[in-house]
Design brief:
- With about 475 residues, this protein is mainly β.
- It has four helices and 28 strands.
- Strands 1, 2, 5, 6, 7, 8, 9, 10, 11, 12, 13 and 14 form a twelve-stranded antiparallel sheet that branches.
- It starts with a strand and ends in a 10-residue tail after the last helix.
Length: about 475
């Protein structure tokens, strides 16, 4: 499938990034058109972010090349930020002459607009420029409104002007604002128009984030000797500041800005891509995520078929294997340099996924799924990189994994169309089954190496060792054979 985007022009100009410590800062992101397809390459046009300031223009867009899914006229996108004693962030997208699925959904113009600004220690934002004009859904004129859902026969639904905001207090009482608007989005709940269920067509997305400045802390006054002090009365020592104590978490957690532009070198060596086989991912690091995961996306989502093998990206030690409500089936891997990698939303673990287990790069740890808060979304692996040098920041020490994923060796010469049906037959329940005790049907492919495609093919084609082997692996006794 090809994407036709003629005459695309991207402009880059210098823009203020985050200021010094305590300064106000902001970020913005715009996506004109995005097509997300589970397990397949999708398409994106006019996707930009700031800082630095960006603008993109295109004459047309079509997906696939014949435009049978979506076609548009001209597109434009801009993202700009300004930081210092105050901050502003704005993102705007505009798409004209939209037609989806051969005219089942059409619109004259779709505009996404988000803006945030600070004044003193206050922050706010709005989406006043967002709009949809000339919307026709299945032959019916449909006036758009904020956060409405329109049914699409028996195959999906459409949303217009979907908005999300979050404002809370940060350090020193300074306010932060995060907000996004998705002007038009089509969600498939059943296969339609050549796309599978779970596909999403999003048009006119804009996002803005600002954090107000923090007032500088007053310098402590160190008392000196009193004029009345004599040689027999030595000067008092300066008071010692108390050790910091852990504060109770407030109902509105502080907004923490993601580390932007940091890309520490990972030197443990032998890194490989975390998903085996065909997959798709984009740079969604830092995107707004409501009231979960610290309000921003700490990693990238790697979309792949249900059951695609998940690999250890480096030699290292597995830890924190299990379940939580956000990540679902999740685990961590620490490489020999101390860098940490987070894997989430797995459908199942392999026997190698044991706390404290030593693994080699390319060994299989689990399988792609959508457990936890990803239920109902296309199956994917949520993957994060936490460099050793930033571990002092806690969970917010995650950096953008996209440059690493682009550089690592990605093996994808084996497809896994049968793995999803194998997983369905195992009867795997949600929440997570016990780690390190999951086999696919009666054939264990976890022994295969992600660095050796032939070994995986051999494992998948190997004859079953019988039900008794599976039951013994799960700690159960096989039934006695019938006479």
């Amino acid at each position: 499938m090809l994407v036709a985007l003629s005459g695309l022009l991207v402009l880059i100009s210098g823009a203020g990034g985050a200021g010094g410590a305590g300064a106000a800062g902001g970020s913005a992101r715009a996506v004109a058109v995005r097509v997300v397809i589970p397990g397949q390459p999708g398409a994106t046009a006019g996707s930009i972010s700031s800082p630095p300031d960006h603008a993109a223009f295109g004459a047309s867009f079509a997906y696939p090349s014949d435009g049978s899914v979506v076609t548009t006229g001209s597109i434009s996108a801009s993202a700009a930020t300004n930081s210092g004693t105050s901050a502003t962030a704005s993102a705007t997208t505009q798409v004209g002459t939209i037609s989806v699925f051969g005219g089942e959904v059409t619109a004259t113009t779709v505009t996404g607009a988000a803006r945030g600004s600070t004044r003193g220690r206050n922050a706010n934002g709005n989406f006043s420029g967002a709009s949809v004009t000339g919307l026709v859904v299945l032959g019916t004129d449909t006036p758009p409104a904020r956060n409405i859902r329109v049914p699409l026969a028996d195959w999906g639904y459409l949303t217009t002007l979907e908005e999300g905001t979050d404002s809370s207090l940060g350090a020193g009482g300074s306010q932060g604002f995060h907000g996004f608007v998705s002007a038009l989005a089509i969600h498939l709940t059943a296969p339609h128009g050549g796309l599978p269920a779970g596909s999403v067509i999003q048009i006119g997305y804009a996002e803005a984030s600002v954090q107000a400045s923090v007032a500088p802390s007053p310098k402590p006054v160190v008392p000196g000797p009193s004029p009345k002090q004599t040689a027999k009365q030595p000067a008092k020592k300066p008071p010692v500041a108390p050790e910091p104590t852990k504060k109770k978490q407030s109902a509105s957690p502080s907004l923490v800005r993601p580390p932007i532009g940091l890309q520490p070198k990972l030197t443990a060596g032998g890194y490989v891509f975390p998903v085996y086989g065909p997959s798709q991912f984009g740079d969604t690091y830092g995107a707004f995520r409501g009231d979960v995961s610290g309000n921003w996306h700490h990693g990238d989502d790697i979309f792949a078929p249900l059951g695609a093998p998940i690999l250890a990206v480096a030699d290292g030690t597995v830890f924190s294997v299990g379940w939580n409500d956000v990540g679902g089936n999740r685990l961590w891997l620490r490489d020999d340099q101390g860098n940490q990698f987070y894997y989430a939303h797995l459908s199942a673990f392999t026997p190698l996924a044991k706390n404290g287990a030593r693994v080699r790069a390319g060994e299989m740890l689990g399988f792609v799924g959508n457990t936890g808060d990803a239920q109902g979304t296309p199956t994917h692996l949520h993957f994060e990189v936490h460099p050793y040098s930033l571990l002092f920041m806690g969970y917010d020490g995650a950096v953008d994994p996209t440059p690493y994923l682009d550089a690592w060796n990605h093996l994808q010469d084996v497809r896994f169309s049968d793995v999803a049906s194998w997983l369905a037959q195992t009867g795997i329940a949600d929440p997570a089954p016990k780690p390190a005790a999951i086999l696919l049907q009666v054939s264990d492919i976890s022994e295969a190496s992600g660095l050796d495609p032939a070994s995986l093919q051999r494992a998948m084609s190997r004859q079953s060792a019988g039900e008794g082997q599976v039951l013994r692996t799960l700690g159960l006794r096989p039934k006695a054979p019938r006479p």
